[in-house]
Amino acid sequence: MACTTQDDRPIVFFDIDNTLYSASSMISHEMGKKIHAYFVSIGLSHEEASELHLKYYTQYGLALRGLVRHHNVDPLDFDAKCDQALPLEEMISYSPQVQKLFEDIDRSKVRVWALTNAYRLHAERVLRILKIDNLVDGLIFCDYLMKDFSCKPEPEFYRMALRAANVGSPANCYFIDDNRKNVDAARAEGWGHCVHFCEKGIEHMEGGKLKAIDDAREPGASDNDVVDVTTLDELRTVWPEVFKAS
Ligand SMILES: [Mg+2]
């Protein structure tokens, strides 16, 4: 979906998982179980599986990166048995509110893309369930067809996104993600308008260990010009220039 013509409109990048739908859908939790089972299926004990799952997630931002690097796992096999095996249609429901938010973005002013650490198939499936697939102009995903694909929060992933979307200046990028590390990485690349989506009450849920890794920051770290929101609708206030005048 890379575009080849120059388009000077700023671009709004939305993370997908746990941003466009609530983390209360427990998809991360179910995904964690499938990933654990995958580690076990390649011959690791339950203990090693837990340890390495956490280690790779912390180190690479994505367990699969470690599986590919250190265990020669085929990303597409992993995708089939983990992401694709989730009954997403039963776990996520279409939200008229999210759809309306996307409809209310002024396309004469900005472009709207999704930026995900999942593979294309999972991303497209979620966008279809949410009925916003026709409201997203393009998709940046982890390309599992490439052996050494990059992912958030690696700088290369953000640079690849700018190339793929033909963005002239990172200052023209808007970005929202539920993972604070991913947001800070975008800021480090000079992305102009960054928002951290922190849904209320989610940190207390199961799977909170990974969430704590996502959001861990140095004590006393500055806000890094990142705005926190607890609902997507708050974007209307944070980025008023992106939406149609009401
Ligand atoms: Mg996310």
From TrEMBL:
SUPFAM superfamilies: HAD-like
InterPro entries reported for this sequence: HAD-like_sf, HAD-SF_hydro_IA, HAD_sf, Pyr-5-nucltdase, SSM1_domain
Gene3D superfamilies on file: 1.10.150.450, HAD superfamily/HAD-like (3.40.50.1000)
TM region positions: none
A biological-process GO annotation: nucleotide catabolic process
A single GO molecular function term of this UniProt record: nucleotidase activity
Name used for this protein in its record: Pyrimidine 5-nucleotidase
Organism of provenance: Crepidotus variabilis
